Amino acid sequence: MAASINDTPATVRARRAKSAGIPLSAGMILVTLGVVYGDIGTSPMYTLKAIMSGNGGLATMSTDVVLGALSLIIWTLTLITTVKYVLVAMKADNHNEGGIFALYSLVRRCAKWLIIPAMVGGAALLADGILTPAVTVTTAIEGLRTVDFCYAIMGDNQGIVVAITLAILCMLFLMQKAGTSTIGKAFGPIMTLWFAFLGVSGLVHVIGNVGVLRALNPVRGLTFLFDGNLNAAGVMVLGNVFLCTTGAEALYSDMGHVGKANIYASWPFVKACLIINYLGQGAWIIANNANASLMAVPDLNPFYQMLPEQLRVFAVILSAFAAIIASQALITGSYSIVSEAVRLDLMPHMRVNYPSETKGQIYIPMVNNIMWVGCMGVVLLFRSSEHMEAAYGLAITVTMLMTTLLLFTYLSKVRHKMGLAIPFLVFFGAIEAMFFFSSLTKFFHGGYVTVLLATAIFVVMYVWRRGTAIERTQTVYLPVDKYLDQLFDLSHDEDYPLLADNLVFLTNDSSFDKLDRDVLYSILDKRPKRAKAYYFLNVQVTDEPYTHEYIVNNFDTDFLFKVQLRLGFRVNQRVNTYLYQIVSDLVANNQIAAQNHRYSIYREHSNVGDFRFCLLRKVISPETDIPGFDARVMELKYLIRRLCGSPAKWYGLESSNIIFEYVPLFSKAKQQHKLKRIEFAGSKPSAAATHAPDAFDEDDEPEDIFSSAMKGEREKNLADATSALVGGDTASFKPLVIDEDDEEDSEE
């Protein structure tokens, strides 16, 4: 987007930061190898093993069967991971952030119903993110039993495996607060060694049988898939083939952590190593499919068997590290997904930490803790990887289908390439639908756990989004200038006690001339709050790490200030200290009278008075007239909000003087019986009743099916506000833009 003549320097800097992304560098390529590819990089350990087991074992693996299975794996990696995600999906980024919610933010104006596939896909991916670390770490620890000295210690005692797995998961989640850059630098060299090991160990066997390269022909894969003489599992074999690409969605979600340039640079190396290893396993199977001694080995794994015995100890230990690292891709991807969901009002606001100098690398403590507890719960429930693997991959097929639907909309409506969009939808939709139906066989063998987790996450999103739509039908932004006289009179009215020298309200909107009705209601109606000065503070996080800026609109007064505080993403958001500086500046510039203290422990008295912070929360009163279902939605939303913490903690106000005030959710009041007074005549009085008129209602947000369903309520509330409120004729029901630059960019 070209710079406007009215652009401020801060806006230009923010736009440049967004367009630049994380640059290509050798260090970030190493981080990418450690953060992004863990899940997809460990697939050679179990994909061919699962296919061979499902087809009847080593004896059934003829040359045509092996070449067909390898062809399906190679072309699944090529079509799903390379073409769909690396070449297509990564072009659809939202300010360099990837993932299904970043994609939805690009297409949400195209159709109201698109929010549903975004919510379904996001919930399924987050559920898979809880399951994957449990599966991969447990599998890795069980693999240590193949080493003699480890087996001598562990034996068949699964309790030891569970205990070690839980300890490693605790260590992994505790490390997250260090940031993906730090973790990537630690994991990067290990994963680089891992991929080199995959390539070299496979290449040795490919050189011994170059005929295995015939698997590059896609016709062999199609023949194997539909020929019952070759493939005993039929189309259901795709449920096992799909294991080779389960990390593709995490790759897209992790794009914001490492930058697309570093993924483009590293993926060819990763893919080459994976394919060479698969070909090497295939060559070994072809050479040994008639080996009677190997046929007798239970749970035969060609990944380990093709290695010389003296290398297996090293391979098992290295694969254990790689499997642990595989969990990292899903964990960091989950942070990105939740961050995007919060921006879209699909999840509650949560504290976000930025452990590095790059904004894309984030850490969300609450998400980390929930995933931590969830992973440990899955380990304790299933105990063995055999049971966990039954659920593995089912949810991710749902996410891939939803991503395909959103990418079709992006290509057709945003990029206006219908000629590309329709073949894309038909081709990838058909492939992924086959993967989905073949994975459904896992449902009763453990897949139900993933489905239950995804359903729970979807319910949270649904409740939060619908609840937000209900609230926004109530939200009215009123012009501040209509209330200046009342606020001036109140600040000088000695009939009311002085609540504070400086009374501060935290607001969500970034406008400079309007205020939420709830704020004005709290000051003027709920209990008149007298203060020498009123501040309405909006905090915005910039794309630069160390921004310290603020803008003030004083409405040509010395008692009322709308403040926008712009802080870099690495800056501690302790707003009380910044407000003290702002008031000091206002006093120094003669924009507000000095607030001299008569009493103080300090020798030099401050010219800045005391502060009180008022935090408002909406509640449903017993009189609120909301349909039963919507009332339950709002109650559940407010419960979720309480569990996610308080702005007092986010903004460092724990030790400040705070007023927690609850304001009613403005809605139609239930019809009440009106009492009629009768004169006392020395006998027991009686009463009669009439019905009171209806009261209040709400706002506007036409972006999805939730807000659209409440259009009638918003229109009625607009009429009510116009007639009943001071300044109601100029009230705004449209939610105010939080980041104007983001909004402009997203409309392009």
From TrEMBL:
Stretches assigned to the K+ potassium transporter C-terminal domain: 502-659
Protein family according to the UniProt entry: Belongs to the HAK/KUP transporter (TC 2.A.72) family.
Major location (coarse): membrane
Topology of this chain in the membrane: Multi-pass membrane protein
Reactions catalysed: K(+)(in) + H(+)(in) = K(+)(out) + H(+)(out)
Keywords: Cell membrane, Ion transport, Membrane, Potassium, Potassium transport, Symport, Transmembrane, Transmembrane helix, Transport
Provenance organism: Paratractidigestivibacter faecalis
Protein's name in the database: Probable potassium transport system protein Kup
Subcellular localization: Cell membrane; Membrane
Keyword Protease applies: no
Record function comment: Transport of potassium into the cell. Likely operates as a K(+):H(+) symporter.
Membrane-traversing stretches: 20-38, 65-89, 110-131, 151-174, 186-212, 232-252, 264-287, 313-342, 362-384, 390-411, 418-437, 443-464
Superkingdom, natural source: Bacteria
Presence of the UniProt keyword Transmembrane in the record: yes
Domain K+ potassium transporter integral membrane intervals: 29-476
UniProt-listed HAMAP family: Kup
Gene encoding the protein: kup
